[in-house]
Amino acid sequence: MITNWSDRISPTIQNIPPSGIRRFFDMASEMKGVISLGVGEPDFVTPWNIRENGIQSLRQGYTMYSSNAGLLELREEIARHLHDWYRVKYEPRNEVLVTVGVSEAVDLALRAILHPGDEVLIAEPCYVSYAPCTIMAGGVAVPLSTDADNEFRLTAEQLEAAITPRTKALLINYPNNPTGATMPRKELEKIAKVVEKHDLIVISDEVYDKLTYVGEHTCFAALPGMRDRTILLNGFSKAYAMTGWRLGYACGHPEVISAMTKIHQYTMICAPMTTQKAAIEALRNGTEEMKEMVASYDQRRRLVLKGFEEIGLPCFEPKGAFYAFPSIKHTGLTSEQFAEQLLNETKVAIVPGNVLGACGEGHIRCSYASSVQNLTEALERMGTFLQSLTQKV
After folding, report:
1. What is the predicted pLDDT for the residue at 22?
2. Is the Cα dihedral 207, 352, 24, 349 positive or negative?
3. Which of 14, 178, 184, 292, CA to CA, is 20 to 30 A from 317?
4. For the chain, which residues score pLDDT lower than 70?
5. What is the 3 state secondary structure string of the chain?
6. Are strands 248-251 and 96-99 parallel, antiparallel or unpaired?
């Protein structure tokens, strides 16, 4: 009998901390009356026509495996969608892979390209999985810190300065989780020049592309010269309120998609058939309801920004995604102290900024993908909490 499992677990896995987002989610789930602004999940139910398509696929007996790469019909719709929106062309048969969420696509991309010790430059603050997935793939995660003074945007100069002989790839996510930052096309073009100069691969997670409120989203792969050196990642969770369906996709050069498919083949086999059938409907007939949801997020975005101003929380204006990233530095508390005390004293759950990158310290992430009623109540509770901190001082 094995008496000491800790000696048998991979040191790499042992040294990776659990998700800081999920830790606060689990804490909140054990309390009654909590308003959660923590997990990044739409509060909308998947539109009915999309659900009906999934249900109908079950009635029709589509309960088998699809090809490893996903249903060709879905891959064709993905390619059409990307061409219609961004004028970037992909061949559905060998340049599109359907994945189990964008999270799997991130993992596959990193495992497909990294040699042991390769460096991946990651713009932070960022989604919690990027660095751990890099490490699990044998790479070295190199954070590139951004801040509110520069609207949480990565600069070409910053990228240039961080490149070493070991640098293999750049991983970016705009619109950004957790800051809500977006990138103007001209700034991405400058980054593209550095990428080309140093022959880098770009992994561009654009799952929040449709949730852009100010300006227009620029697809990185659509920039001149970037299509064949970019692994474009996207999915259905955010724009179509399909988080539980777990469906994403990756597009790129045939060789990297082939390598990713090989890993996917041995670990996942394929994405669920029912989900793929529903996604076809989302791409064909989901645009209007998607736009209505985005308009609602924009309304809540403005509500939260105004509310933070009124209660005294300085906040960079998020221009995409559905997160606000206010500063709590003036309170004298760390991000984790603020989040824990806020949860325990007011039953409002948020995410401490430091779990999204060291440069996130002094900030908190608040998702405004919640009802206006919940957001209003959460802001009142946060205002009371801030007043109590002032009185303690």
Report:
1. 67
2. negative
3. 292
4. 1, 20-22, 24, 28, 392-393
5. CCCCHHHCCCHHHHCCCCCHHHHHHHHHHCCCCCEECCCCCCCCCCCHHHHHHHHHHHHCCCCCCCCCCCCHHHHHHHHHHHHHHHCCCCCCCCCEEEECHHHHHHHHHHHHHCCCCCEEEEEECCCCCHHHHHHHCCCEEEEEECCHHHCCCCCHHHHHHHCCCCEEEEEECCCCCCCCCCCCHHHHHHHHHHHHHCCCEEEEECCCCCCECCCCCCCHHHCCCCHHHEEEEEECCCCCCCHHHCCEEEECCHHHHHHHHHHHHHHCCCCCHHHHHHHHHHHHHCHHHHHHHHHHHHHHHHHHHHHHHHHCCCCCCCCECCEECCECHHHCCCHHHHHHHHHHHHCEECEEHHHHCHHHCCEEEEECCCCHHHHHHHHHHHHHHHHHHHHHC
6. antiparallel
> Which tokens belong to 165?
């002989």
Question: Tokens for 143?
Answer: 């954070």
Q: Interior CA angle at 93 toward 92 and 96, to 5°?
A: 50
Task: Extract the tokens encoding 76.
Answer: 């064709």
- Does the CA dihedral 310-312-314-318 come out positive or negative? negative
Query: How buried is 62 (Cβ within 10 angstroms: 0-12 exposed, 13-18 middle, 19+ buried)?
Result: middle
In whole angstroms, what is the distance from residue 224 CA to residue 185 CA?
Answer: 11
User: 334-338: long-range contacts (C-beta < 8 A, 24 or more apart)?
Assistant: 334/361, 334/362, 335/360, 335/361, 335/362, 335/363, 335/364, 338/364
In whole angstroms, what is the distance from residue 233 CA to residue 97 CA? 10
List pLDDT tens digits, range 314-344: 999 999 999 999 999 999 999 999 999 999 9
Residue listed under structure tokens 């007043």: 387
